[in-house]
Fold:
Amino acid sequence: MSAIATQSALSATAESALETWLAEQTGKSLLRFLTCGSVDDGKSTLIGRLLYDSQLILDDQLASLRKESRNRHVGDEGIDFSLLVDGLAAEREQGITIDVAYRFFSTDKRKFIVADTPGHEQYTRNMATGASNADLAIVLIDARKGVLTQTRRHSFILSLIGVKHVVLAINKIDLVGYSADTFATIEAEYRAFARDLGFETLVAIPVSALRGDNMLTPSPQMPWYTGPQLVPYLETIEVATDRTQKPLRFPVQWVNRPNLDFRGFSGTVASGTVKVGDDLLVAASRKPAKVARIVTMAGDIDEAIAGEAVTITLDREVDISRGDVLAHPGEVPEFSNQFQARLVWMNEEQAMPGRSYLLKLGSQVVPASITGLKFRTNVNTLEQSVAKTLEMNEVGTVTIATDKPIAFDSYGTNALTGSFILIDRISNATLGAGVIEFGLRRAQNLSYQSFDVNRKVRADLKGQTAQIVWFTGLSGSGKSTVANLVEKRLTADGRHAYILDGDNVRHGLNKDLGFTDADRVENVRRVAEVARLMADAGLIVLVSFISPFANERRLAREVAGDIRFTEVFVNTPLEVCEARDPKGLYAKARRGEISNFTGISSPYEAPQTPDVTLHGGLHDPVYMADELYARIFDFGASYSI
Amino acid sequence: MSQSSRRTLSHLHALESESIEIFREVAASFERPVMMYSIGKDSSVLLHLARKAFFPSRVPFPVLHIDTKWKFREMIAFRDRMAREHDLDLLVHTNPDGLAAGINPFDHGSAVHTDVMKTQALRQALNAGKYDAAIGGARRDEEKSRAKERIFSHRNAQHAWDPKNQRPELWRIFNTRLAPGESMRVFPISNWTELDVWTYIYAEGIPIPDLYFARKRPVVERSGTLIMVDDERFRFNPGETAREEMIRFRTLGCYPLSGGIRSDAADLPSIIMEMQASRTSEREGRLIDSDSVGSMEKKKQEGYF
Structure:
């Protein structure tokens, strides 16, 4: 391993030899893997052996190790390798039971980062964390014990997180007399179990981490074994070449604006390749642009591939901010506010469907909630069962709704744009991690031609249910005050609402109408039609009109058709309205300066069965607005999947 | 790193990209980030990565150096040169109380000196600046206790590290949210090893202080450690005199607390070769850790990097 290279490089005094060696160092590839298996399976010994063999154990550490290894089970080197990575006792005293440790070693060909996931109670959480950045997993099996429940559990989590390459290290093979039969039996049993787990490569290797059998070189004890040795296999397996072949995903992480003449979009290419001159689309807005430059400090480059952190400039001004995803036309990610996902719960506080969390996916952060918990998977038996909540370390299949649409892919097609975490809105703790199975707005994935644009689609884009709320009541009853408060609250919650009232309709659309009974009827008819159109556009429409006649209110409801329609009667006594008289209209009416004034010189037909009645003489407007909001904008309840 | 036609990135290129992504996440997610700058090789790599992350913008946050007043003179000159060349917003803080009390490594020992002039000073500077994110150059391979450190490491309002309150980090999704008063320590080169740092410095031609290269330097030897006599404040023991030796430093800090090693490695390739052949761990030359076992863990909980 590296010792060989070091010696040869040192003996070659020529500068060119140093250069060659350094060039090799800088050109090495990187493999991230994790190890699964309990301490009993020899995991610590295996990692310790890898560190030892790659000469990363230094003289001062080695001396103390030899001392500590006395009275322990040791190999030919006189060292208990597990001591190199253990530190668990001390950590338990400090309360660190839930952690993943990262270890580093390298050989001539590759650099390795090992995620070491100890701990039994927190195994699901730890393994999911370690696996999330791993290209490969070593599943350790004690040759004397064979495939255990734990082996199955580890493999399920690997499959869930999408680790595609697995090495089945059948360890302690020396303790079963280097038996080819034992090896074959275990391998066959594991392969049968793992058939549906989606692993692309699966190699079984008989090893003794303690004695070094089949670690670096073929073991003379096992002439029957003709497969690869562990370290050479790790050095050569191809795991990460496919990310550049996938559709381009460029999540904008930071907008780079050093001065008025430069506007770049900084980010890491999550997948695919982007070239200067490429046509791009912004996933959310579908705005097009061409790549003008790909900027790095070392100079502009012609193309950037998956994994590279670059800054892109475009040929035109497009409104793009952090969280936007750039893609090639025809290969855009899904853009929706609902999806189905598998969720690993990581917090002591259980997962609650309906509660609002923050969802972070790439650089997008949005409020989101679990709208449905389909089932829970028992990680030990892989059985699915109905569940109302998820406890820590449980895995569930859920539907999630975000407050506004986000760009994503299924995890199977793109891990970096198909994974997310959920964050507690108060404690800010990371509660869970999820992988997206598929978007739930299938219609939105289709091409423009077959895309059926209707009210529901438009409203879904806005994350709401389109509806009409019709306020009726005397002049001065408080209709507009309440409607305004409700509109503010809806807007603050990210909803899209609009108020239709006398002020904005009578001055334009209806300025040809007076206050005769006939004109009042026409006034309401027109407003009802406008309300319907706006609701059809996906808006929440708040209509604030005296609308004194029951017939016209019924007409308005009929015009609305299947749009949700709520009649709100602001029932404030005439004396109260007249005492308020905010516009001095009652005074004028009493003096006879206004004719046909509702309540004074024109009738008001109070609704007999309004959907909501607000008592304006008893309650203040904020109270009424809250009441109304709770009654009709309970989004959790009205939001059906 | 240079562009290539290969369809996978070299490990250094992958590490570089990962670090750049972390830097950008900090700039985009925090109100008042600051970058710790200790002038050493890791800080040099950190600075280089920060410049790459934001190019052509200048580094969009200040760079903070905690000056104990006992750094090598050459370090200070190097620091000021870097700030000038890269148009950095350089902040230098020294603990005024420690300065007034005349705290120094000779009279007070490494533990007191480090606590007052480094740990406390850092806390003062972070409080005064109300920084919500402090970027540091710690690596997971440096020490056992750091193998589990997060890349975004949460600190409570007292800057303390609460092992139970650390957040799982999956994929490259970092939870950067904080309650008022809390802060984050961010370690963009967590996944780099010492060899990675050196080969990257070589590959990118990153300037580092000359102290890393073997030169004839005035030293005294104390219990096997070579201490450089950097200025007139050095306290000689009776009968002790400085002698010239060919030495270099593997880590830089306060000069009375930094042990040099005998070496002929006067350029970068020689250092890397020598380091590859050397069989002692990096922190051996750092006298801070020798005061008590497990001291790094303790210092981390107290707010030292």
In short: Confidence is low (pLDDT under 50) at residues 1-12, 442-451, 635-641 of chain A. The CA atoms of residues 316 and 638 of chain A lie 41 Å apart. The longest strand of chain A covers residues 364-377. Chain A touches chain B through 86 residues (CB under 8 Å).
